[in-house]
Amino acid sequence: MTIDLLIIHAAELVTPSADSPRPLVGEAFGHPHRIADGAVAVSGGHIVAVGPTDAVMQACPPTAETVVLEASGRLVTPGLVDSHTHAAFAGDRSRDFVARIHGARGDKQMSGGINTTVAATRAAGFDELVTLTGERLARMLAHGTTTAEVKSGYGLDLANERKILQVYAYLAAHQPLTLLPTFLGAHAVPPGFTLETQTEAVLAMLPEVAPLARFVDVFCDEGYFTLDQTRRILQAAQALGLRARIHADELGDVGAAALAAEMGALSADHLLCVSDAGMQAMAAAGVVAIILPGTPFYLNLGRVAPVGRMRELGVPIALSTDFNPGSSFSESLPLMMTLACLHNHMTPGECLTATTHNAAASLGIADQVGRLAPGMQADIVIWDAPSLDYLPSHFGVNLVETVIKSGRIVVGG
Amino acid sequence: MTIDLLIIHAAELVTPSADSPRPLVGEAFGHPHRIADGAVAVSGGHIVAVGPTDAVMQACPPTAETVVLEASGRLVTPGLVDSHTHAAFAGDRSRDFVARIHGARGDKQMSGGINTTVAATRAAGFDELVTLTGERLARMLAHGTTTAEVKSGYGLDLANERKILQVYAYLAAHQPLTLLPTFLGAHAVPPGFTLETQTEAVLAMLPEVAPLARFVDVFCDEGYFTLDQTRRILQAAQALGLRARIHADELGDVGAAALAAEMGALSADHLLCVSDAGMQAMAAAGVVAIILPGTPFYLNLGRVAPVGRMRELGVPIALSTDFNPGSSFSESLPLMMTLACLHNHMTPGECLTATTHNAAASLGIADQVGRLAPGMQADIVIWDAPSLDYLPSHFGVNLVETVIKSGRIVVGG
After folding, report:
1. Reduced to 3 states, what is the DSSP secondary structure of residue B186?
2. Interface of B with A (CB under 8 A)
3. Is B238 left (phi over 0), alpha (psi -120 to 50) or beta?
4. DSSP per residue over A50-70, as a string?
5. Is A321:A84 a contact under the CB 8 Å cutoff?
6. What Rg, from alpha-carbon coordinates, does chain A have?
7. What's the CA gap between A70 and A5, in Å, rounded?
8. What is the reported pTM?
9. 0.95 surpassed by complex ipTM
10. What is the mean pLDDT of residues B119-141?
């Protein structure tokens, strides 16, 4: 076996302690393995050994062809997994941002809001969207994200939803991040439609767009799609082979979390207003709660997702950016870790598991990415940080030194 | 006149509307000049023309030697001025960060706190401090800061305070940022001292360190140096030619803002608990309020500086990072703009004035930096942003494209 890449002498190498693709809960969630003087060996794009440098060097001695990266004084982690992004759109929403400074409320409640972006995205051509979206994916990669779920939802009609999903398909083949596309035709109600007629339109789009998507998502919330509309869309999508995710109970408790459990959804996302019963149902069904702290921060909502109670109930937790132009305009998962530490009282260990293994589990790919372990894809980040605890403590600047995707150095190095 | 550099076709060129080195208040504070299709011409390290591209090109036609930067679709602003940083230290405080997640309160109240950093900084040699501090200044520069006030205060005895100020003197000559050093021997009470014996020690240090500093600063607050101790230190320092700044009324209202006015201080900083009388005194004396939104954010203090009232009273306002390892560990002024928009309801226009001209005024150098105007130092940033409003709306990632310091391209380009 040729060792293509060796990372050695990491001050701290940290990886979730999972031994299966299931999301971690309980003690293991907050306590990833921390290996001092750590090393990783890579061959053929996959990890072949992880452990203390001495042991890895003995098991996998470098040859003349091996690239050896010295990581002394540095933190090494799995590549980050962003499990909730809206990467493809045109236009900007700085007008909404400034309006909120002057007292306008929320974002999704604002007239205009999402539909401002829908109009700009419909007007944009395929090439323009590829360029814009590609720049954002590059920014994610620069901040340590190697896998991203990417939602449609700024088209809202067949032609434009298909255009967005085709942009993702193109970019999946033309840049380093692994992209997992989600059809979110039920993101908002476009001009000329009602919740019910948009539901019908989404049901009609489904057979056309299903081949381009892996997941389906619905915005099930106060003033948005109802439980019944959500159920109909998810059932039809599941019949076509898509797995379900739900924008759930962000603006009010409408029972979307319990619906996620009932429907066997992989994740319920946002959950600022989720009920205890909803969390209990999620824990029982193993639905991953995707915490998006950038959104209440950016919208000044004054409330956060109840991570403490989720922890108690054993709800699996992931952490993502909700990257989008209106309500969380940041590509940086490390900054979301800082926000989760400050506002959700999550520890750095929890943040690491929540942005790697548990995020991968919410995407059904935790057998491939999210951990540093033999057989896993070699997605690895070397950070200009001496420890995991330091990473969220030094905020708002990019501490990534090197990003490795499938064994190849794609940032720094 | 040789035109060395021309920046042309900026989507928006924004500069404070001042016509004097005094800080801006009132209407002018929030409304910098915004020039569409803007241009700047530079000669000999200084700005020679600013305006619409057509007019600047006509007045200052490029020659074969002129470097022409095309900024179409981009925002152009003055280089940012960070008027409150603690850049030189060793060690890290991630332990305090994690302790706060588990419920520990504040930072400066924590036992350990600043003195953890004092111990590490005392143990560090000159070369190590130069390396560590140089990395941080490079990060500031990468985020658009071209001038920084830099405080001592992690030495607290003569040898170590002098070491820190000598680190700044060395770095002032060996990297691009303009550094303005502040002696902050009255930052905390080191082991073995009381507030009073440390006050005496600071008074004794003053003649030795004064040649290395431009300003003096005292932490005048609840549990820290008293009004009387602060007054004695500032008077002695002023007699040696240092100008005064004060860490004022962050933890409680002790009347430090009014003292700043009484002593003719250039700035009073933090001000989370400042009284109305304190703000009125500042307005009357023209003391600049330096708002540091990173600190209450990072320490989860649940209160912010009363910017609305300051605006009403005509207190001049600047905005800075408070960059330090314990209570605001970020070099990014753009992120501070985002926090100021979200938490202090400052507009993007106010944030721009507060991080350029008004910050420069608080340092007594607004005749040299902080504006794009003929005769000013050519410190300029080109941003990957289509407008000023966009800049704070896209947060936690670095939108700097090019930084020009004294007419020379030092980042990007």
Report:
1. strand
2. 92-95, 97-98, 101-102, 139, 143, 297-298, 300, 329-332, 335, 341-343, 345-348, 386-387, 389-390, 392-398
3. alpha
4. EEEHHHHHHHS---TT-EEEE
5. yes
6. 21
7. 11
8. 0.98
9. yes
10. 98
